[in-house]
Write a structure and sequence with these properties.
Length: 140
């Protein structure tokens, strides 16, 4: 897994001195992860991993008001007979100076590999704002 992440993302990030080795790249990723403290932010807003559902718009509002940027939230679609989507990934974007920035699809983004990420056998895509949303404690 780590090799995949380094080969796919790290070798691109390595153009920056602060990320130009595997150790720096993963070390900085952990540092940013702790700094962002996504679970803590959602918890403060009363959004916690549970069996109850949340509104996607409410989750987005909390994140945008807390961080001042728009993250990219991807979900697994509802399973057969279910009505709720499941959050699979919340992605924050950073500038080259490692400041938080809005996650935007590049203009004319039509590359399907960009929009869909395989998680196990399931496919993640941008969450639907109108569906009830399940925030799992961990993705099965």
């Amino acid at each position: 897994y780590r090799k995949h992440e380094w080969d796919k993302h790290g070798t691109c990030a390595a153009t920056l001195e602060v990320l130009n080795s595997q150790k720096k790249y993963f070390g900085k990723a952990l540092e940013l992860y702790q700094h962002v403290d996504l679970n803590g932010c959602l918890l403060k807003a009363g959004i916690k991993p549970s069996s109850s559902y949340y509104k996607m718009t409410a989750i987005k509002e909390v994140l945008t008001s807390f961080y001042g940027v728009t993250p990219k939230i991807q979900c697994l679609p509802p399973e057969e007979g279910e009505k709720a989507q499941t959050i699979g990934q919340i992605e924050f974007c950073f500038t080259k100076e490692l400041q938080l920035t809005n996650c935007m699809a590049p203009k004319g983004e039509s590359n399907p590999t960009q929009a869909h990420l395989k998680l196990g056998t399931e496919e993640l895509s941008i969450c639907n704002d109108t569906l009830p949303t399940y925030y799992p404690s961990e993705v099965q």
